[in-house]
Amino acid sequence: MVSTASTIWYVDADDPAAVLREHRDPDPGAAQALAKQLFEDYEIVPKMVGTLAGCAGPDDDEIYIGCYPGLTVVCSRQVRLPDPTTLPELLIRPLASEHTYLVSFDASMGWGSFAHWERGEFRRGFSSSRMKILADAGLPLVWERPFWAGERPVLWRADELPDPQCLPFDPPDFADEANSEWLGFQYRAPLVADALLPRDIAVCGFTLSPKDPPVESPEPAPDPRDRALGPRGRVLATRARAVGAAREQTIGPRGQVPADARRREPEAESIGSAPQEKERRGLLGWLREATRTD
């Protein structure tokens, strides 16, 4: 008998139990893809294939998923909520399924919870311990009547004295009955011949490892000269040093323009030499002209 479960089902099949009987092997590729979609902030590492008999109530750092034709089950601590109506939007209808069923319970705490969404619209939700109703939303369903009527009471031990304020049913059994009505099998019922059992439903396990945060460059150490300045003064001093460093790279530490950055000026000789040479060439040319004339 399973003592704890934390499951959510996405169902399109008309007869989920028939699908689970006919298909005993889940799709590991689809399971891993869904795990990455639901837990994008984690590294998804495959670990094992188990069954709902031992994997329906996983630890915080693991999930189990079974993907079958027309239905998918996810076992995760994230759906173990005191109030199922607060389920994150991402988990309500990630596969655009017709129905979403949440079933969670912990027999050691006497707590049980269940909820139903139809095409993403909330229909019914309940959660309670033996002493206190934690959530009760939506219209009660027909199958709930025997529990509220006291026909399914808690089976107390001989040495236990029940509190007069206890509910007329055991919340884990209440949640298990919801599982039976919606999915066609039970975790806590006595063994019956040919019944579909949690050990018949395989699920793919994955370990959740938080992704490493992006590496941030360390901030520069504060300059000792800025200790006496206020926050704004330190910012201005830092900017002034940055401007000074850039100026020093451009004009040199002593205010001299580097040779490679200095614009070359024409030499004085070259300024007057070209016209004089042109003038000499002009004089020779004139003499030659005069000689030819003579």
Largest sheet: 9 strands, antiparallel
Query: Low-confidence parts lasting 5 or more residues at pLDDT below 50?
Result: 265-280
Shape: elongated
Average pLDDT taken over every residue: 84
Task: Indicate how many domains the architecture comprises.
Answer: 2
The structure class reads alpha+beta
Please estimate the helix content.
Answer: 25-40%
The first-to-last residue Cα distance is 138 Å
Q: What's the helix-strand series?
A: EHHEHEEHEEEEHHEHH
Number of helices: 8
Largest beta sheet: strand ordering:
2-9-3-4-1-5-6-7-8
Features:
294 residues; alpha+beta; 2 domains; nine-stranded antiparallel beta sheet; 8 helices; 9 strands
Give a structural overview.
The chain folds into 2 domains: 4-210, no CATH class; 220-256. The chain has helices at 16-22, 28-38, 52-55, 89-92, 145-148, 171-183, 231-251, 268-293, and strands spanning 4-11, 42-51, 62-68, 71-75, 99-106, 111-118, 121-128, 133-138, 202-210. The chain contains 8 helices and 9 strands. With 294 residues, the protein is an alpha+beta fold. A 9-stranded antiparallel beta sheet has the order 2-9-3-4-1-5-6-7-8, with helices on both faces.
